[in-house]
Amino acid sequence: MVSWGTMLAEAQTELVQGKWWQLATATAFMATFVTAFALLTDALRDALDPKLR
Fold first, then answer.
1. Is residue 38 part of a domain?
2. Is the pLDDT score of 12 beyond 80?
3. Which entry of 7, 39, 40, 46 is 20 to 30 Å from 32 by CA?
């Protein structure tokens, strides 16, 4: 099963060999996911919280 943790662990061992793009790709995807999730939850809070209206 593929997971971000597995991708990071494998990329960390290959980082010594100069293959930095695997670590950068996994990091970029995680940062994008976390940012998108934060924006989604903020939008839901703004739309559904009656105290903000």
1. yes
2. yes
3. 46
